[in-house]
Amino acid sequence: MKDNLFMCIYLFFIFVIILVINMLTPKFTRKEIVFGVRIPEDKIDSDEIKHIEAQFVKNNLIIGIPFIILFSVLNYSFLNVGMILFTTFAFVFIIFLIYLISNRAMKNLKSQKLWFQGKKQVVTVDTSFSRSKSNMLVSAWFFLIPAAIIIVNIILGYMNYDSLPYKVPTHWDFSGNVTGYQFKSRFLIWEMPITQIFTTFMFFIVYKGIGWSKQQISSIDPEASVKKNSIFRKSWSMYMVIFAVVTNLLLTVATVQIFRVFNVSSTFSYIIILAFVLVTILSSIVLAFKIGQGGGNIRFKSDGENVKPDFGDKDDDKCWVLGNSIYYNKNDPSLFVEKRFGIGWTINAGRPLGMAVYIGSIVIIIVTIIFAVFSGK
Is Membrane one of the keywords (predicted)? Predict the structure, then answer.
């Protein structure tokens, strides 16, 4: 029951963090994009929008808190892989539904007010972007650091392989009791490095995607917008490098524990994992607050001086579906574009490769869930 209580408390805090992040997300998003809906910049501070934002917070508290309590009780009473996956995905789905409520309210308000009627809509393009985008990211050579960590894991595996018992402990509960074994084989040497290679590759793809993504420039003040976007890309590319390094170090703890390079208690391992999760979440929140989506939270002295009631960016809401969460535009050659709600990038489902990524992701999630459920039995 001690393990049940630990996982219940752990998942409780994870759910709370997800809920808090969801409530804070409007503070990260571009100011001219409210709950996925593009609005004129001179309407950002309207009372109607502030009311929808306040209601969004209330909905999160009214709907989210009861489900957090319910899912925590379920995880305590019926702790297994299937229940953890069910409650986690169910809570993420509920959070998305809360967003959809505000997205619909924002769409209705925009439709009623006809804010873009009579406005000159402009698309601004930076012709130097293709030549300068490589300078917007930190050097890719920094990924040699996680590569070196992977090599260290391989060396540790070969150095300590002969001392392993016939049945190797690979999983422990919070009390330090062994809950899983693997038979001694050369695969053990490569099991963790393969995981590290995969995760590092994923971080590198995200890093490259930051550079490949479509540049979104405000037509109100293009020069400032380009500078903010450059800071945004460089900051998050550095975050990806640091995140890749820290993740590989975390996985190295597992290598050290399995091969008994030196004694690492399971309690210490859980503390390290919890610290990793908290630092990752908090650092991303701080960075998101400071910079905002596309650099929207960065402030220059000239901000607000060029706002014109009859002039603004093109209303491109028709290119977004499913609550403005998925970008679908066959005429846009860009594969990566900025998300409409929150921080980060999404994929253009209108491109064949983009659609393949979406379908592949769904398949991987389903296979992972099935594997996790059956392997836990």
Answer: yes
State how far the Cα of 208 lies from the Cα of 201, in Å rounded to an integer: 10
Contact 217, 124 (CB under 8 A): yes
- Per-domain residue ranges for the chain? 121-314
Quick one: CA dihedral 48, 53, 56, 61, positive or negative? negative
Task: Indicate the SS3 state at residue 369.
Answer: helix
- What does the block give as tokens for 52? 């929808």
Residue length, the chain? 377
Bridge partners, residue 172, by sequence? 178
Residue 233, number of CB atoms within 10 A of its CB: 22
Average pLDDT across the chain, whole number? 84
**CA 100, CA 75: separation in Å to the nearest integer?**
27
Q: Pairing mode, if any, of strands 311-313 and 336-338?
A: unpaired
Give me the phi and psi of 327, to 5 degrees please: -90, 125
* 344 — pLDDT class (breaks 50, 70, 90): confident
Residue 348's pLDDT is: 93
> pLDDT digit string (tens) for 255-278?
888 887 777 666 777 778 778 878
